[in-house]
Amino acid sequence: MTTRSARADPALAAALSRLAASPDPDDVAAAAALTPHQLLATHLLHEVSKGPESFWHPYLQQLPRSYTSLAHFSADDAAALQLQLAQDVAAAAAERAREEWQGALPLLRALGLPKRFALLRSWLWAASTLHSRTMFLPWCPAGALTPFGDLHNYAPPPPPYVPQLGVAEDRTAAESAAAADEVAAAGSVAAASASGSVYGAEGATGATCAKDASTGAPGAEGAEPAAAHEAEDADAIAGDGSWDEARQQYVIVVRRRVAAGQQVLLCYGRHTNLELLEHYGFVMQDNPHDTAPLDAALLPVPDSARYSAGAPPLPPDECFVHGGSPQAPCNTDNTGDGSSGCGAPSWSLLHFLRYCAATPAERRTQGHRLAAGESISEQGDRIALGWLRAACMRQLEDLPTSLAQDLEELQRNSQSDSNSNIQSRSHSQSQEEGPAQRSASQLGAGDRAAVPAPQAHDRQGAAGTTEAAQCEGTQQAAAAPAAAVA
User: Does the pLDDT at position 53 exceed 80?
Assistant: First the structure.
């Protein structure tokens, strides 16, 4: 389902023509301002409104009824995220969805959809479907809704190289800079509302997921020792995909060895947990690309160094510390080889701290090394690390709850959800037939849009604990359009 199929739909094409030829200048302006994303979301709502008569009905039935992405968070839900940045991102996501809906309203009305399909909550469902499930297309920024293709769960790309404060690095400045450039290229995401690489058409291509995505599919089993297989797989993404224009097919390529019974995962790009929650509605327990933003004003750096003429800039979006990775999570010993990013500062923050910790003489004689982010002295790194620790402690102390309290709350919510699922299964098993078994004539308005998706659609679920992202607010979601107005 793409903007091509949208424009090929007679009813939708006629509605677009009527809007463009309307005597109302506002309607004409609305038609001219429609984005591919708005057109595809309208196409989706139109097909859902047709019920069983839609060509896409079997696929639409498998879409989730609700989503847990940030656009669905209420003000109270967003406040539970605690960090101001996370709350701002949630508010911006909700406002962006509202603006898109208002811009598409003239077309929704011109199409003559039932009123419930033109509501904001219906638009939120459609927009979240696109943000979390569309696959990249080179010719359309809105991407494509692809049956079967959108069933794959997420596997992050290999972790970035992260330099360590107070650790003797075995890389030269040039090698470290090259590694930083490689990490930046591998994880680049589009500005504004980029959702991912394979999933989320506004993101980059699948190649951005990998350190080396060009290795292709692995060779035959047994051709190399097991250790070599593991090393090769560690440096490769799980899988990616691309559109084959000649064959008119979406091709999914597996780039790691997959055992029988093991699910095939895809890389959507490099994302922090906040970005995953914003676009996909889940977070990861051990995300190698997760970061925690830090308020630069909390760094107890002397003003004479902070505001000196040669002090490097520290933009707010580059002032953060890295999270851990599955290979070397935060609760393990740091080997110092850059494979664990747990608590390590960003490159910009590291550069700033080392500059401020250097003496005036070191800045004059070692400025070229400071500019490359290199360590000047062990004493300087100790001072920088002390500043970083103090800032982190101050920021954590300002939060309403502690990590222990967050984990306790998550455990209570998890237990409550488990009990609810058990009760739901018991209730469903006592029924002679469920909504999916009823005929079209017996379906109420709340059943026509979609049936609940299998667990595979959950994309690993909201399993992380970072910044209380799995607070009870994530359980509040907008229902699928028809179900929402039942």
Answer: yes
